[in-house]
């Protein structure tokens, strides 16, 4: 049986190596897909954080504008409460947004918005409130109102452009994440299917090489023991299985000839 086992061992090692290669390649591709999925998810989370921070900064600009306008119209200090809060929080919110943004184009857009916001606070809103407190006529003029509206509209347009670009980027990243997830699932299915197919093929090979010839030899031996000396095995096996088939046929032929000789005697 040494030749047969040597051949089977070679086939087993080859099949094992191929199976290990399939599993290793599948897991390697899965790891790459999962890493891409994780990176895409991180970028998507960053985009959401940027949008949230930008919305917060835009809200502060609106609070600055509405608070100052309410104070100009009514001369009541209570309208300045959101104005004071927005003025206090604007620098910190602006720095937080600048730290989040990594895209160079978006970073330039954010820095321009921040410069416009600081200019609006220091160059328009604070002087406006001071002028109202001194009961000057300037804050109620059409020119002053138009100037404030122009500045706020410019900042809000910048926020709209920033949000549009970021939402488009977020949509693209989510689509990529979906593709990465589908690719990971497909790779897993292909790897499992390939592994099962290889295992099934090798099991069938072992059955055809060992199991079937051994069962056939056992059946033929039973018929021979029952007196059917004309039985013969097809000599199709390899290695020691082929030797066994040939030896069985030689033995059956010898017994048949001996029986015939005895019958003649």
In short:
The chain has 265 residues and is mainly alpha-helical. It is 88% helix and 0% strand.
Notes on the structure:
The protein is mainly alpha-helical and 265 residues long. The protein has helices at residues 2-74, 81-100, 104-133, 142-225, 239-264. Helix 1 (2-74) packs antiparallel against helix 4 (142-225). The mean pLDDT is 77.
Keyphrases for this structure?
single chain, 265 residues, mainly alpha
What is the secondary structure topology, with strand pairs?
Layout: H1 2-74, H2 81-100, H3 104-133, H4 142-225, H5 239-264
Helix pairs in contact: 1-2, 1-3, 1-4, 2-3, 3-4, 4-5
Radius of gyration: 43 Å
**Uncertain residue ranges:** none
Order of helices and strands: HHHHH
β-strand amount: under 5%
Class based on secondary structure composition and strand pairing:
mainly alpha
Judging from the principal axes of the Cα atoms, what is the shape? rod-shaped
Query: What's the count of strands?
Result: 0
Q: Portion of residues in helices?
A: over 70%
Cα distance, first to last residue?
Answer: 40 Å
| Largest sheet: number of strands, sense, barrel closure | none
- How many helices in DSSP terms? 5
Question: Averaging pLDDT over every residue, what do you get?
Answer: 77
């Amino acid at each position: 049986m040494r030749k047969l086992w040597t051949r089977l061992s070679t086939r087993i090692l080859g099949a094992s190596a191929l199976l290990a290669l399939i599993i290793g390649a599948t897991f390697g591709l899965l790891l790459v897909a999962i890493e891409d999925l994780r990176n895409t998810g991180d970028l998507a989370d960053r985009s959401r954080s940027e949008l949230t921070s930008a919305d917060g900064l835009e809200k502060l600009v609106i609070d600055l504008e509405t608070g100052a306008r309410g104070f100009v119209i009514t001369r009541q200090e209570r309208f300045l409460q959101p104005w004071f809060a927005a003025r206090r929080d604007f620098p910190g919110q602006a720095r937080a947004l600048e730290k989040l943004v990594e895209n160079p184009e978006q970073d330039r857009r954010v820095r321009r918005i921040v410069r416009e916001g600081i200019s609006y606070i220091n160059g328009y809103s604070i002087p406006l409130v001071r002028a109202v407190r001194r009961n000057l006529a300037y804050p109620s003029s059409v020119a002053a109102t138009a100037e404030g509206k122009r500045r706020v509209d410019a900042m809000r347009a910048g926020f709209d452009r920033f949000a549009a670009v970021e939402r488009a980027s977020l949509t693209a990243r989510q689509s990529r994440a979906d593709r990465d997830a589908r690719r990971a699932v497909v790779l897993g299915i292909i790897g499992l299917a390939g592994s099962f197919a290889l295992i099934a093929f090798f099991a069938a090979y072992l059955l055809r090489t060992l199991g079937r010839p051994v069962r056939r030899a056992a059946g033929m031996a039973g018929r021979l023991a029952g007196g059917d000396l004309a039985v013969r095995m097809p000599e199709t096996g390899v290695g020691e299985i082929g030797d066994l088939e040939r030896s069985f046929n030689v033995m059956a032929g010898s017994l048949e000839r001996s029986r015939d000789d005895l019958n003649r005697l």
